[in-house]
Design a protein that fits this description.
With about 230 residues, this protein is of the alpha+beta class. The chain contains 9 helices and 4 strands; from the N terminus they run ααββββααααααα. It has a 4-stranded antiparallel beta sheet with strand order 1-2-3-4. The termini are far apart.
Length: about 230
């Protein structure tokens, strides 16, 4: 059975987005073209004043709000290059890596929080970079590709040790974590007596299937595998 798109199953959600744009972003407009798209200009506000304005298109996936809207800068100001944190092939903005979603726009957050959080921060940093040649302090984008993902896991786990990060990922990637397993921190204690709470927190923030995918990807970067962990 074909899944009904969010704007048909939850028309009140689409109405709330329209109302938000009318009230606070009058230069952005909703179009329903099989999928829901927003087009127009996005104002970059800082300190109560408008610093810049970008022409944008925001595409809503059919599984919104579980999935993140895709943002495009359509005025030709931002090069389609990874150094500018744009995916070169499709041209969409890299607002954050998937693992950062819990901090940037957690599940349950509203669309206005999406615009005022990751979207605003992305375009504000682009404006700052275009004027100064550097990213704003504290808003430096993550590294490209898997290195940026790994940076997110370093922060989530709370260590700069890559091997320890991978061990935590291997544990969190399981649908069931057993308390008698050795703690991935390397203390020699069992999980139930060591970092049980941190592992629970990681499992609540990042879906296990995503961690499994990342673990397989990182295995190609010369990190330890399961056999090295338990060997």
């Amino acid at each position: 059975m074909k899944k009904v798109s969010w704007h048909k199953s939850s028309p009140e959600l689409l109405d709330s987005i329209r109302a938000l744009l009318t009230e606070r972003y009058p230069t952005l407009h909703v179009y329903v073209e099989g999928v829901v798209v927003i087009r127009g200009t996005f104002p970059v506000l800082h300190g109560g004043r408008e610093l810049d304005r970008y022409q944008v298109e925001i595409l809503f996936p059919g599984s919104y709000p579980d999935s993140v809207p895709v943002v495009f800068e359509t005025g030709g100001r931002i090069p389609h290059h990874a150094d500018w944190h744009v995916f070169p092939r499709l041209g969409n903005a890299c607002l954050f890596v998937s693992e950062d979603r819990w901090a940037a726009w957690p599940r349950g957050a509203t669309f206005d929080q999406f615009l005022e959080g990751p979207v605003r921060n992305y375009f504000l940093s682009q404006t700052h970079y275009s004027l100064t040649g550097r990213w704003p302090e504290g808003w430096e984008p993550r590294s490209h590709d898997l290195e940026g993902v790994l940076e997110a896991y370093h922060e989530l786990v709370g260590t700069l040790d890559r091997q320890e990060v991978l061990r935590f990922m291997w544990v969190v990637s399981h649908d069931v974590v057993k308390g008698h397993w050795p703690c991935p921190c390397g203390s020699g204690e069992k999980i139930r007596r060591c970092h049980r709470d941190r592992i629970r927190e990681l499992r609540a923030r990042v879906p296990a299937d995503l961690v499994r995918l990342r673990f397989r990807q990182f295995q190609g970067l010369e990190y330890r595998t399961r056999d090295a962990y338990f060997g």
